[in-house]
Amino acid sequence: MIFNSCKFPFILLACGVSINSIAQKNQRPNVILIITDDQGYGDLGYTGNSQIKTPIIDNFASKSLRFTNFYVSPVCAPTRSSLMTGRYSLRTGMRDTYNGGATMASNEITIAEMLKQANYKTGLFGKWHLGDNYPCRPMDQGFDETLMHLAGGMGQVGDVTTYFKKDSSYFDPVLWHNGKKESFSGYCSDIFTANAIKFIEKNKSNPFFCYLSFNAPHGPLQVPDRYYQMYKGIDPSVELEKNNPMHLKMTEQDKEDARKVYGMVTNIDFNIGKVLQKLKELGIEENTIVIFMTDNGPQQLRYTAGLRDKKGSVYDGGTRVPFFLKFPSLTNESKAIETIAAHIDVLPTLSELCHVDLPKDRKIDGKSLVPLIKGEKVDWSNRSLFTYWTRKYPELYNSMAIQKSGYKLVGQTDYNATIEQFELYNLKNDPYEQHNIVSGNIDIAKNLKKELDTIYQELILSENLTKQPLIVIGSEKENSLILNRNDADGTRGLWDQEEIFGKWIVHIMKGRYNFRFKFIKPIGANGQMYLETNTIINQMKNDLNTDVIEMKNVSLPEMDGELIPYYLVGSKSILPLWVEIEKVN
Question: I need a labelling partner for 440 at 20 to 30 A (CA). Which of 178, 187, 309, 494 fits?
């Protein structure tokens, strides 16, 4: 998208004496936003885990503003869209982590685009997961420099340069640097950190926004051996048993997974230490906002400080995460802030701290956290937070929740359920969500359900959701391009299956194209390759047992619609793993 500077005049907001003095010197603060992937609330020493080694983050937390009731979405892509925009993910067009629903609409305004209005230099290092093709890539959404993997994770089906590396995908990867493939040596978290530090060094004299978005400790669980060795002999179930209200039992695989995760987190801790040390060396620590957070609960079973459930759940184990903010120019105070806050609050908070106006032409669901940071008396008791998680689109009252005024209503039921079939928890008295009190508090539950219904009905009709964001084919901004399986829509659960229906929702520019269809493994000879684009069907016979088929010089008019490729051999219809497309004229 093209960002319209006329819509965003600068506003200098009074945020305390130190903020005003910075504004007078025309020195807006730098911003470093660090987020990790699938690191749960209990995966830090600071949150009570005595087995994991995170001395850097623990020390950072002890000297920071700690939001102890901070919430995100139950899974990664929705969290990241809300983080970037200050809006509920469904408003942005984000409805899944794949199944064609992990593309954020290009008309959304990101933190990077907002800060560009004040001439910030912007960089992303790590995971994006909000669209891998123009016009939804980070380089199209306000980032000057990008170093990233594709899809939801390295080694996943959508990350075409690492997928076939399988259990070594986190080492010596081919990544995407400013939209071009580039080979790197080393471990992924080290690579992303090293390049983030280079970005910081290069822009030390200008305000910058560095989004360091680790893909670890997301699976596949791959860790440098020296970090794994730190945990090889531990029994992670000992830690779980310290606070285990659900009486869960870890399998041997769970324990081994935990050891690997702990190693991956300790590596992240070490890398964060390098970033913080660089700020000191450059003399910019005082005027740099540093945020640490995670994107959802843990994917595997392990210690969660007693919180119920894990990633993918609307219970607190899936949605409550650590959030630490440090900004010495504003305050050196270290304190815990118990007021409920969320991912949607980060953009409006940075808007105020960086003296840049919020977008005016859309609803921002988040609130600036600055009044809480400054210790002002604010009453947020009436604030409500909505969350859900199911594949494809929200399933009414299934895995859906709303919390307000200390109560949380959870729907794990049918679309036509009575209020008695919901769950109600008093989070202050019952932080582990063990005691359903709905039967004795029907009026509270009904009021919460009424608000949940209102929010759901508004979000489900969002324009960016009802009109799915389109991948543009034929633009000079991205030629050639790869349509990966992560962004393919079609049969529910579309992943790395061969005999399955899939499609990409696209805008095609008029022209002639070369198509290259890559399959998971060689396909049989004596079949036909089909390319369906709305009413136009191109087909060709294939006589080879091959994993790549090419269609050259295909003429297509301008259109919006579905691009459906498949190989028909015998009774099998095989979907390509990815499609490479080049416009030739």
Answer: 309
SS (H, E, C) 217-259: CCCCCCCCHHHHCCCCCCCHHHHHHHCCCCCCCCCHHHHHHHH
How many Cα neighbours within 13 Å face the side chain of 525? 3
Whether 94 and 136 map to the same domain: the answer is yes
The residue assigned the tokens 């269809």 is 517
DSSP string over 396-423: TTEEEEEEETTEEEEEES-TT--GGGSE
Domain end marker among 401, 432, 466: 466
pLDDT tens, position by position, 454-500: 999 999 999 999 999 999 999 999 999 999 999 999 998 889 999 99
**Do both 121 and 192 map to the same domain?**
yes
Compute φ and ψ for 427, nearest 5 degrees.
Answer: -70, -25
Spatial separation of the C-alpha atoms in residues 174 and 180, rounded to whole Å = 10
Would you say residue 378 lies in a domain?
no
Residue 379 lies in a domain: no
For residues 347 and 429, state if they share a domain: no
The pLDDT value given to residue 7: 36
In the prediction, which pLDDT does 26 show?
Answer: 54
The residue ranges of the chain whose pLDDT is under 70 are 1-26
Q: Which of 466, 496, 513 finishes a domain?
A: 466
Cis amide prior to 217 (ω within 30 degrees): yes
Angle at alpha carbon of residue 543, lines to 498 and 158, rounded to 5°: 30
| Same domain flag for 428 and 350 | no
